[in-house]
Design brief:
- By secondary structure, the chain is an alpha/beta fold.
- It is built from six helices and five strands; from the N terminus they run βαβαββαβααα.
- The longest helix is centred in the last third of the chain and has 13 residues.
- The chain is globular, with a radius of gyration of 17 Å.
């Protein structure tokens, strides 16, 4: 794959109204991040990027459900130092509407995100979040045993 540099502006506090907001904080920080940027998020599509299953409801407690799009990240990246991210597995994004059907706005955001990373749309984004949660539960076994998933599977079966 090689190395490449992407220059982008990322900020904790908005000072302008963006075309799209990517909410990329941990779930426990979602509410505070939205409150801190609320002034600039009126009618802006907000894409949640949290693992787990609570984020969309937290966002809906502060913003209109029509604004919310939800992403499931199916790639593996490592962040070791400021400004450097290593992509270990170049997967994809799954994007959907947690509180409504697919629409033109979802399709437009998917097209934009697809320019950076392979993006597909889902009509059941909540199911995709739950599936990722269940699959990620398997990560604990290699972590606590220091074996690969293949080795763990062979021990069990």
């Amino acid at each position: 794959m090689g190395n490449f540099t992407v220059k982008l502006e990322a900020t904790e506090r908005l000072n302008f109204r963006p075309d799209i907001a990517l909410l990329t904080v941990k779930t426990q920080d979602v509410t505070d991040a939205l409150k801190a940027n609320f002034t600039f998020l009126t009618d802006v599509p907000v894409v949640t990027f949290q693992n787990g299953v609570r984020s969309d409801e937290l966002v809906a407690s502060l913003l209109s459900r029509k604004q919310i799009l939800s992403a499931v990240v199916l790639m593996h990246v490592t962040y070791l130092s400021p400004g450097e991210v290593t992509m270990v597995f170049p997967g994809k994004l799954v994007l959907g509407r947690p509180f409504g059907p697919r629409d033109g706005q979802l399709e437009k955001v998917a097209q934009i995100l697809n320019q950076a990373v392979s993006t597909r749309m889902s009509d059941n984004i909540q199911g995709a979040h739950w599936l990722k949660l269940v699959v990620n539960l398997n990560n604990a076994l290699p972590a606590i045993t220091n074996y690969t998933m293949s080795q763990v599977t062979k021990m069990v079966f």
